[in-house]
Amino acid sequence: MVTNRIFPIILSIELLFTNLCHCLPKCSHRPNIIFMVADDAGWNDFSFHGSPQIPTPNIDSLALSGIILNNYYATPLCTPTRGAILTGKHPIHIRLQHYVITGGMEDGLPLDEKLLPEYLKDLGYATHLVGKWHLGHSRQLYTPTFRGFDSHYGNWLGMQDYYDHFYKENLGFGYDLRRNMEVDYEGFGSYTTEIYTEEAIRLIQNHPTEYPLFLMINHIAPHSANEYQPLQAPEENVNKFINSIEFIPRRQYAGMVDALDESVGKVIEALELAEMLDNSIIVFTSDNGGSPEGHGDNYGSNYPLRGVKNSLWEGGTRVAGFIWSKSLPQRVSMDLMHVQDWLPTLYEAAGGCIPNLLGIDGVSQWKTFHEGVPVRAEFLYNIDDIYNNSAFRAGPWKVLQGNATNLDLGAKFHWDLWYGPSGRSKNTSVHDLIPAIIDSAAGRALSRTGVNFNVTELKIRQSEADVKCEKPVKCINCDPYNCPCLFNIIKDPCEYNNLASEEPNILRHLLSLIKYMNRTALSPIRRYNYPEAAPQFWSNTWTNWKDFI
């Protein structure tokens, strides 16, 4: 069994030397990088993964003409995933391995970390963030424009009402929409996905093209809103599904995903009109698995994977994602990737020298994208000593132990099974969506830049991206709360058959890797909400309260 058990120091050293000759001079024409994050989207909520229930033609046009990342993982929650993307480090090394940042917390993403926008600014990039931050706000030093972004328009916290932009939690009810450091009330009453899309388009239209652009668009869709009205989408989006989705909460959720898909199409269209698409890298990812069947007041689908958001099952961590660039081949990739790999990957793609990246956990996948040569053999899902759970993947093997799910996020029981509709039927196939994919706003923009949509090849990639599971006739149940479980994820991606008793040596080896990794972990930031942060003290807004007391 091949493992890069030093996480992954050996591979990083190799990459130091193999990439020395690939660093571009400052005058080179660096690619624009557009990084789009969906919030709490399930594996099965985009039609490129095989379900025609919620057609996502704009997203699919990019995925199917790019590289679909079918063996790609995030962390179980929003904050740690975003921290890993921006630092290139696993959350255990940036103190974000436990839960998320809430309104009254003092700490955030550690201030001594250099972030992706800062690395890209060193290469001459203009850097902008639109949408959700969720990495700290108690002091202005934690906020986006003090962490490498030239501008930020969006929310500091994890969720909000999609129209009035208030966020409710234990400390109260506060407004959360910012333009840089200033509270922005102009967006009040407008749908969040739409105003974030408009801001992204404005930035693209006004961008001076002599500089490369890094634009990060962190949608809150399709995350649920506040508990009193959790599912919110424009009526015209919801009504598209009135005849196809009978269950009203799932139909409302579909409207949220549909509005997100429209946003992607508009952004790609804007890039093409600005003559920037031809030299752009597009990344699309969910931040964690979905919340199905009322979990977190939401109705996503992780079918056919097991578990939910905030769990270490595949349904909480294996996420939908792809990368698109005209320079990349069109394929479905089964090469292992983790979100911590984005920083070195995009830094190399931008012409940066990998030796400049010191002390990170991620490995560049740029060569893998081009040549299909894998660079990652293992990764840590997470170690959370507060939840008392951990999981590790090495090659095809996954070990999972402890409280695989928990009762946070309002859960009333453990979500350890398989959830969400398959969305498949005998009468409709994703193949039937191909004309709409090609004719979508994004599809037409891609065609104008020279992308050729071959229907036969599109059908092949659709089929390859559809994960199928067959439950063995005889399988051993997993109870990670009492004993560690072992799965062969390549053969059993849906975690039906616990092989711990059959492969004791592999089990011991993976547990030893978790033990080794835990010795490198930093203590998590303190999960305490200070009453002084309550919105009632700050004009009913969530603010950088520590700067004023």
Question: What would you say this structure looks like, in words?
Answer:
With 549 residues, the protein is α/β, with parallel strands linked by helices. 25% of the residues lie in helices and 14% in strands. It has 14 helices and 18 strands. The strands form four sheets. The protein has a ten-stranded mixed β-sheet, with helices on both faces. A four-stranded antiparallel β-sheet has the order 15-16-17-18, covered by helices on one side. Strand 16 and strand 17 form a beta hairpin. It is globular.
Q: Strand sequence of the main sheet, in spatial order?
A: 9-8-5-4-10-1-11-12-2-13
Query: What sort of overall outline do the alpha carbons produce when their principal axes are compared?
Result: globular
Helix content class: 10-25%
Low-confidence stretches: 1-21
